[in-house]
Specification:
Elements: H1 2-18, E1 35-39, H2 46-57, E2 61-63, E3 70-86, E4 92-106, E5 112-126, H3 132-166
Parallel strand pairs: 1-2, 1-3
Antiparallel strand pairs: 3-4, 4-5
Amino acid sequence: MNAHRLSALVLLAVLLSACGFHLREEVRLPAGMQRLSIEGADSLSPLGRDLRKALTRSGAQVVEGGERSAKLRIAANQFHTDVLSVGGNARANEYTIRYHVEFDVVSATGTSLLPVQTIELSRDFTFDASQALGIAAEQDLLTDELQREMVQAILRKLEALGRETAS
């Protein structure tokens, strides 16, 4: 019985290693972005705070107002809530939360490294008037999730820029 378990475990390990699966690593930024400042996002805002943390984990040195650093400029950072559907009682049943961010990256010399990029993420949720407190908590949870996903989307764009300049 133990031999069957051991062989099944070995087979599973071989299959997992052969499929190309690997854990996601931290983002690799281009050499020109190892020293970076963030403009347009308040350092206390969730986007600014999370971007600083993620960039630091990626090995970048995030500086305040650096003259000799690349600049990640956030031009737009907005949430919108829209009604998706209305019920028979003329009240909204479903909403969508949209998170819209526009940004670009310029080098320390002022040349454009990445033209203006627009990322828009959205999540839908159902409104139930009898669960008003739960809906508010769900909306907060969805907003936090969108902010985390936006940081990852921005980092993926920056990493793609690094791969593009390396080739």
